[in-house]
Amino acid sequence: MGRAARMIARGFRGLMMGCMTDLERENTVALRAMQALLGLVSGGIRGVSVELVADTVVLYVAVRQRTAELDEDLDDIVFKFDALLDELTSWEVKVHDGPPDLNWPGRSKRLVYLAKQ
């Protein structure tokens, strides 16, 4: 069984235990973010990016206009994301009211979703 198959078989439980390189951890977080977004991206979300800082996942979200409904969607995304990454428990969500342009702090991070303009 190859390394990738062993990682899948373990369910990525070794994510924070030093079993993966930094790039593998970042790729896994990006993949899980995309999975968490499936079916939960509303029209108010303009862009999503992720950053892994030590054992904390930082989720950057650019929105058209922040509303209570959008905050619920973001809570659902984080809940689903957390379930996909069993080992990570520390979260930070940074919401940017505005376009995902160069002023958006998430623009220089790992981009996982960008709405058409």
- Rg from C-alpha positions? 15 Å
The number of E-state strands comes to 4
Low-pLDDT runs of 5+ residues are 5-10, 12-17
User: Topology as H/E string?
Assistant: HHEEHEE
Please bin the fraction of helical residues.
Answer: 25-40%
Shape: globular
The chain-level structural class is alpha+beta
How many helices? 3
Mean pLDDT: 84
Strand content: 25-35%
- Spatial strand sequence of the major β-sheet: 3-2-1-4
- State the end-to-end CA separation: 44 Å
Q: Tell me about the biggest sheet?
A: 4 strands, mixed
Please provide a written account of the structure.
The structure is a single chain. The chain is α+β, with helices and mostly antiparallel strands and 117 residues long. The chain has three helices and four strands, in the order ααββαββ. It has helices at residues 3-9, 22-37, 68-84, and strands spanning 45-53, 56-63, 90-97, 110-114. The protein has a four-stranded mixed beta sheet with strand order 3-2-1-4, with helices on one face. A hairpin with a 2-residue loop joins strand 1 (45-53) and strand 2 (56-63). The model is unreliable at 5-10 and 12-17 (pLDDT under 50).
Offer a concise description of the structure:
The protein is of the alpha+beta class and 117 residues long.
Break the fold down into its secondary structure elements and pairings:
Elements lengths: L2 H7 L12 H16 L7 E9 L2 E8 L4 H17 L5 E8 L12 E5 L3
Can you give keywords for this protein?
117 residues, alpha+beta, 4-stranded mixed beta sheet, 34% helix
